[in-house]
Amino acid sequence: MNSLFNTALKQSSAVRRDLDAFAENAAASSPALQGQISASLTSLSRTIDDYTETAKKELIPAKQEKAYDRIKTFRSDLLDYRQSFERLKKDRQDVVVAPTIPPPLRTRTPILSPRPLLSSPRKIALQTNTNSNHNPFPSDPPHKTIPAKPTLSANKLLCPPQMPH
Predict the structure, then answer these.
(1) pLDDT confidence of residue 79
(2) Are 47 and 11 in contact (CB under 8 A)?
(3) CB-based contact 151:162 (threshold 8 Å)
(4) What are 79-112's pLDDT values in tens digits?
(5) 88 CB contacts (<8 Å, ≥6 apart)?
(6) How many CA within 13 A on the CB side of residue 43?
(7) Measuring CA to CA, which residue among 100, 97, 55, 101 is closest to residue 75?
(8) Mean pLDDT over all residues of the chain?
(9) Mean pLDDT, to the nearest integer, of 144-160?
(10) Phi/psi zone of residue 14: left (φ > 0), alpha (ψ -120 to 50 degrees), beta?
(11) Of 20, 21, 71, 149, whose CB count within 10 A is highest?
(12) Residue 68: pLDDT band by 50, 70, 90 thresholds?
């Protein structure tokens, strides 16, 4: 039980140190540090759960009561660490994102977002010539349709007609 307490104590102090570094320096707020803090919080939570299970098995009531007091302290510290981390992440995100985008550009749509193309030449040609057979591309010769007449071959199957050369 002492080893779990010592592990939880070391993890708690490491999380506090990382949170202090995260709060002090904008350069130290890398995604790697955020991931490290998140993983440390999860590890501390699991260590506290293990410590709780071990405390339940303690036979000496005085030691068990002392362990429960320590667990209560660790859990409140863990809750404070998580709230502090979420607040710092939100503050850091507001500070980092807001100045990088100038105010006039914040209302614009992203470059790769779908935009309506209302004045493209192709669309204008399609809108003006929807009811006529006029070809908007004069370089394309008009296509002639040749009616297909089925022919009967020797084995009594229908074959497509031969195109003239």
Answers:
(1) 96
(2) yes
(3) no
(4) 999 999 999 888 877 665 555 555 555 555 556 6
(5) 19, 22, 23, 29
(6) 16
(7) 55
(8) 77
(9) 57
(10) alpha
(11) 71
(12) very high
**Assigned token pair, 49:** 């759960």
Q: Are 129 and 136 in contact (CB under 8 A)?
A: yes
Tracing tokens 């070809």 back to the chain, one arrives at 135
Of the candidates 44, 43, 45, 65, the one whose C-alpha atom is nearest the C-alpha of residue 55 is 65
User: Helices (H), strands (E): how many in the chain?
Assistant: 4, 2
Written as one letter, the residue type at 53 is E
pLDDT in tens, 114-138: 655 555 666 655 665 555 555 556 5
Half-sphere exposure of 150 (CA within 13 A, CB side): 5
């004045």: which residue's tokens?
119
Q: Which two tokens stand for residue 146?
A: 């040749």
Q: Percentage of the chain with pLDDT > 90?
A: 42
Amino acid at 154: A
**Distance from C-alpha of 129 to C-alpha of 100, rounded to nearest angstrom:** 47
| Token digits of residue 80 | 């404070």
- The answer to whether the beta carbons of residues 32 and 101 sit under 8 Å apart is no
Q: How many Å apart are CA 27 and CA 7, to the nearest integer? A: 29
